[in-house]
Amino acid sequence: MPNPVQPPYPHPSGAVAPVIPKQFVPKHVAVVMDGNGRWANARGLPRTEGHRAGEASLLDVVAGAIEVGVEYVSAYAFSTENWSRSPEEVRFLMGFNRDVLRRRRDLMNSWGVRVRWAGRRPRLWRSVIAELEEAEQLTRENTTCTLTMCVNYGGRAEIADAAKAIAHEVAAGRLKPDRVNEKTFARYLDEPDLPDVDLFLRSSGEQRTSNFLLWQAAYAELVFLDEPWPDVDRRHLWRAVETYARRDRRYGGAIDRPGASAT
């Protein structure tokens, strides 16, 4: 019998989640955790200390997602481009991602969070893969929220890998080329069950998607925060959700309303 789910710890300020009708709450939030290194350097610290400080921000944002009703959170933990950073920082990030999973998986499990992994296996440390798979196994039955850790992940790489897999299926005669459409293609992505991104949230003032969930974020609402990631907490997420709730999502459609204000 599964253990009872515990609610996340409250925010130290006493802030509580805004009450937003379910239909206006994003189902899937993608998070680019940017600005860790700059946050640390601005304080005279090495970049790695910014990554350490960002761990608490991720936990608090997941807590806030649960409280406001977000069902999926995808976190950009290490990109396929991050291998170009200094060897020292890459080694730190590999070990840090591994250790965060080890330290926090029981807490995630107690909150009812299902942990998933999206990304490429090649080059990724085997110890990191082992911790990702252990967290997936431990939390596989949880339904409160799904946290997808995107480690050694790139949107273009994911699309290229899906295309390669489809090409193999076609070459083997198991799939007809004229049967390949968007729905078929999506089945070959890293996490086929992951819904499209509704809200794309990035910290630290940068206003770009940086190769994150390109396929899934085709119609995402973009919200950019000025704060570096270590200064972000669940209150920033809640404000972004409120911004999302006020936007008119038309998915390429439109209603003719002569005389309506251009704004």
TrEMBL record:
Binding locations of Mg(2+): 34, 221
Record family assignment: Belongs to the UPP synthase family.
Enzyme Commission number, as recorded: 2.5.1.-
Name of the top EC class for this enzyme: transferase
HAMAP family: ISPT
GO annotation terms (biological process): polyprenol biosynthetic process
Reported cofactor(s): Mg(2+)
Annotated InterPro entries: UPP_synth-like, UPP_synth-like_CS, UPP_synth-like_sf
GO molecular function terms listed in the Swiss-Prot or TrEMBL record: ditrans,polycis-undecaprenyl-diphosphate synthase [(2E,6E)-farnesyl-diphosphate specific] activity; magnesium ion binding; manganese ion binding; Z-farnesyl diphosphate synthase activity
Residues the record lists as binding substrate: 35-39, 47, 51, 79-81, 83, 85, 202, 208-210
Cofactor: binding details: Binds 2 magnesium ions per subunit.
Subunit organization: Homodimer.
One GO CC term on file: plasma membrane
Protein name as it appears in the record: Isoprenyl transferase
NCBIfam families cross-referenced by the UniProt entry: PRK14829.1, uppS
